[in-house]
From TrEMBL:
SUPFAM superfamilies per UniProt: L domain-like, RNI-like
Lineage per the UniProt record: Eukaryota, Viridiplantae, Streptophyta, Embryophyta, Tracheophyta
Domain of life: Eukaryota
Keyword Repeat attributed: yes
Protein name: Leucine-rich repeat-containing N-terminal plant-type domain-containing protein
Record's bilayer topology term: Single-pass type I membrane protein
Ranges that cross the membrane: 785-807
Source organism of the structure: Carpinus fangiana
GO cellular component: plasma membrane
Location(s) in or outside the cell: Cell membrane
Leucine-rich repeat-containing N-terminal plant-type domain mapped to chain residues: 43-79
Family affiliation: Belongs to the RLP family.
Length: 830
């Protein structure tokens, strides 16, 4: 007991010390910033202006840098008494939600001028998240010897070890994460004896094997971040004594197992992140002496069975993440003794058996994710028992993809107990049956999809509601008023009947509406035009009809995907579609549309050019909406979800199986960003446009079952990404050159064209001793391109266009932060 008290006290001392110095630094810079009573020093003002001259500032962030009063300029702070400039904060106003394009624009660029060294009294310097040109100058900052805070993270600097930073003996905070530095030795760090915070994440430290030795010499170090540093070894040291450490992040490395032996000396540790390592040792000893441990992140670390039993003794735990390891067996009852637990993630392991009743005793629990395991049995202890105190706290519950059975048949008279807690409930892909439960109006995110719930549906107030893939069978009642917060509604794959009620028009915040695979019939309600924010609409496989023009003409400027396949829509294709500047997926297949394909489709700008913005927009949409989009591409149905769209954006027009007539408008070839085009099974005539090659991202082209004619244009040979081509059942004529490697295509079909000759249709053409090349200028295809192995061509070509930004580390990390942000936003703080 005495020992524990002793350790606690020393930990408190450290913590208090650490917070105090943080407070000193922070308040020093708040009060001095923009103090009108202080006059700016002339020489420092001149230095700042010289610095500004060489900076490139596209969004004019330094516009306030004019006039005499430099202490009032944006980002500058002066000492109250002496008037010296002591703070320069030019951190780019970037946050994870910033669109890539804005991010570029908000960053400062250009050269960092020497004049900066004229600011001899500088305590605080933050240039993070900008991108300067003279990127090898990291050592330059070693001259600013009064610095206490230096943040250069994410700012494009490259080079070797910044030895000169050893001069910054006053430094308390150093953040040089996410730079491209080749660091072979960290000796220089050991001179920074006041250092309390160090972040070198995303630097390659695989050559700096003295990292542990150096960290061990920093007596005040309280927070250390070395995530994704390619750490796979360290020089052994006799004695590990950096016991003031409170936060340690070593995630995403290849740490050797011996690392965990010295963990027992880290007695003050409060937060430890070892996720994404390959841990083979049982970690038994590591946690023995960590009497302050509160936050433990161990996901994706190859941990095995005993781990959870072991951690049930660490009674101080508040957050525990063991997602995606190899932990098997039952969840131990002892988990109930972790009474402070607020956040528990055990998803993606092999947990089986029943949920322990003791979970119900965890009264502080706010976030519980047990998804993707093999749990079964009832959830009575968790949800049904109103005296179990977990229910009063829980905000987020995710039990997806378990085998938790039907409470109904077990204890609770035929239904899931009313869901009266939390703001996020995910019970998807289980075996729940019985009628829909009563659902509390506090729930913001509800996913009960893929169960066997039946009965009728009452409108519920929440932001995200997914009840798809159940057996809901009644009419949709016309009482969707008062749902002013609903953003995502998925009722797909049920047995709903009747019309879409006109009160859907009062869902003014709706962004995603999925009603696919039901028995809905009748006209679309005109009131749908009030849903101004719709981004995804999927009503496929119903019996709907009605006037699309009025709806599309009035709302839907945000529409990115419109999927109406397999309904009864008829009449001309509405002109209003052409005004949908963000439309990337248009699926009108299997309806009764007549008339011709609109020339103005060539103006669908989101398909004209595929760029970063389009990519980001669509990925974001599918992430927020959480529903994969089901489309027929290359002949089979695929679900497009975020994983696909991180790499590849889906752009698709499917007008197949209608009654369209006329020619294929040549304007369609403007769509340089289109990947899938299906015009099959109509009555189109005329030729394939000569410049079909302009659609240079086309992967799949299906023109089968029309009345098209003429020779296949030579230019089709330039479509290097094409891997599916179906021209069968038309009136094309001319030669099909022989090919031995058609199997590298997912499909290639020319049958049913009586004028085509050559393999694979006929052994040869009439008068066939002429070499193939001679036919070229008469418009025949040289099928050489068919031999190339299209998938390879596509990968090389696509990543040639999109690769550099997509693989750029900064961008990538921003992107993933963005997704994390989204998750956070949806699931709330826990
Ligand atoms: C600096 O000025 C601010 C307000 O102008 C004042 O509140 C603060 O106490 C001053 N600090 C010192 C150290 O004089
Ligand atoms: C450094 O700046 C980045 C933003 O550019 C920020 O996320 C990070 O927390 C800062 N580091 C410190 C130690 O304040
Ligand atoms: C830890 O021990 C080393 C010697 O092995 C010493 O140089 C260093 O100052 C010590 N660090 C602390 C924090 O006591
Ligand atoms: C860790 O705890 C064990 C006993 O539980 C003790 O023998 C050992 O000395 C402790 N190690 C440190 C570094 O405090
Ligand atoms: C309901 O919860 C209370 C408190 O946790 C517990 O004592 C009781 O045994 C539970 N009842 C059932 C049937 O699980
Ligand atoms: C496409 O847009 C341009 C410019 O907005 C316009 O001039 C042109 O007429 C449009 N084309 C069609 C076919 O609507
Ligand atoms: C084009 O549409 C038809 C009819 O809807 C379908 O059978 C065919 O598989 C589709 N082609 C491709 C390449 O997806
Ligand atoms: C090409 O289209 C025809 C008619 O739509 C279809 O019967 C055939 O299966 C398709 N060929 C391939 C390889 O998909």
């Amino acid at each position: 007991m005495g020992m524990i008290m002793g350790r606690k006290t020393s930990f408190l001392v450290v913590l208090v010390h650490w917070y105090l110095s943080l407070a000193t630094i922070l308040c020093m810079f708040t009060y001095c910033h923009g103090n009108p009573n202080v006059l700016c020093r002339k020489r420092e003002r001149a230095a700042l202006l010289t610095f500004k001259e060489s900076i490139v500032d596209p969004s004019n962030q330094l516009s306030s840098w004019i006039g005499e009063e430099c202490c009032m300029w944006k980002g500058i702070g002066c000492d109250n008494i002496t008037g010296h400039v002591i703070q320069l904060n030019l951190r780019s106003p970037y946050d994870p939600y910033t669109a890539y394009e804005d991010f570029e624009r908000l960053r400062l660029g250009g050269l960092v001028n020497d004049s900066l060294l004229g600011l001899k009294h500088l305590h605080y310097l933050d240039l993070s998240s900008n991108c300067f040109e003279d990127t090898t100058i990291l050592s330059f900052f070693g001259h600013l010897q009064n610095l206490r805070y230096l943040n250069l993270s994410h700012a494009c600097f490259v080079g070797g070890s910044p030895h000169q930073l050893a001069n910054l003996s006053n430094l308390h905070y150093l953040d040089i994460s996410d730079l491209s530095l080749q660091i072979d030795n960290l000796e220089w760090l050991s001179h920074l004896s006041l250092l309390e915070f160090l972040d070198m994440s995303y630097l390659n430290l695989s050559k700096a094997s003295n990292w542990l030795q150096v960290m061990n010499m920093l007596p005040s170090l309280a927070e250390l971040h070395l995530s994704a540093c390619e750490l796979d070894k360290y020089d052994p040291i006799p004695y590990v004594n950096f016991s003031s450490l409170v936060v340690l992040d070593l995630s995403s490395n290849w740490l050797p197992d011996s690392t965990f032996d010295w963990f027992q000396s880290l007695t003050s540790l409060v937060t430890l992140d070892l996720s994404e390592n390959y841990i083979q040792s049982p970690l038994q000893a590591a946690f023995q002496n960590m009497s302050c441990m509160r936050n433990l992140y161990l996901s994706y670390s190859n941990l095995s069975s005993t781990m959870l039993n072991l951690l049930c003794n660490v009674s101080t735990l508040e957050r525990l993440d063991l997602a995606y390891n190899n932990i098997q067996g039952v969840i131990p009852d002892a988990i109930g003794s972790l009474s402070r637990l607020r956040y528990l993630v055990l998803s993606g392991n092999g947990f089986e058996g029943k949920l322990p009743r003791s979970l119900g005793n965890l009264c502080n629990m706010q976030f519980l994710d047990l998804s993707d395991n093999k749990l079964w049995g009832d959830v009575y202890g968790l949800l049904g028992n109103s005296s179990a105190c977990i229910v009063g706290n829980l905000k987020h519950l995710d039990l997806t993809l378990n085998k938790l059975s039907d409470l109904a048949q077990n204890q609770i008279h035929g239904s899931i107990p009313s869901l009266s807690f939390g703001n996020t409930i995910i019970l998807a892909s289980n075996n729940f049956s019985g009628p829909l439960p009563l659902i509390s109006s506090r729930i913001r995110y509800l996913d009960l999809s893929n169960n066997s719930l039946h009965g009728s549906l009452s409108p519920l107030i929440c932001e995200h509601k997914d009840l798809s893939k159940n057996l809901l069978s009644e009419e949709l009642h016309d009482c969707w008023m008062n749902n002013s917060q609903l953003e995502v509604l998925n009722l797909g794959s049920n047995k709903l009947t009747g019309k879409i009620p006109s009160s859907f028009g009062s869902l003014s915040t709706l962004m995603s509406l999925s009603l696919y695979k039901n028995n809905l019939s009748g006209d679309l309600p005109l009131s749908l035009q009030n849903c101004q924010y719709l981004e995804i609409v999927d009503m496929s496989e119903n019996h709907l009809l009605g006037n699309l023009s009025i709806w599309l003409g009035h709302s839907s400027a945000n529409l990115a995907a419109l999927v109406l396949r397999s309904n009864r829509f008829h009449g001309n294709i509405p002109q209003e579609l052409c005004h949908l500047n963000l439309l990337q997926v248009m699926d009108l297949a299997h309806n009764k549309f007549t008339g011709s394909i609109l020339r103005c489709f060539g103006n669908l700008s989101a398909m004209v050019r595929l760029d970063q913005d389009t990519l980001a927009y669509f990925s974001e949409i599918l992430t927020v909406h959480g529903n994969p989009l089901s489309l027929v591409t290359k002949g089979t149905e695929h679900e497009y979800n975020t994983i696909d769209t991180i790499g590849l954006v889906t752009t698709s027009i499917d007008l197949s199986s209608n009654d369209l007539i006329g020619e294929i408008p040549k304007e369609l070839t403007n769509l340089n960003g289109l990947r899938y085009l299906n015009l099959s099974n109509n009555q189109l005539h005329g030729k394939i446009p000569d410049n079909i090659n302009a659609m240079n991202l086309l992967e799949s082209l299906d023109l089968s079952m029309n009345n098209l004619t003429g020779v296949i244009p030579q230019s089709i040979a330039n479509l290097t990404f094409l891997s599916y081509l179906n021209l069968s059942y038309n009136n094309f004529y001319g030669r099909i050159p022989s090919s031995t490697q058609l199997q590298s295509f997912s499909a290639l079909s020319f049958i049913g064209n009586h004028g085509l000759c050559g393999p694979p249709l006929t052994p040869n053409c009439v008068g066939d001793d002429t070499p193939l090349e001679l036919h070229q200028d008469s418009g025949w295809i040289d099928m050489k391109w068919f031999y190339m192995g299209m998938p390879f061509g596509f990968v090389v070509g696509f990543w040639g266009v999109f690769g550099p930004p997509a693989f750029n580390k900064a961008w990538r990390s921003a992107f993933f932060k963005f997704f994390n942000g989204i998750k956070y936003k949806l699931f709330g703080d826990a």
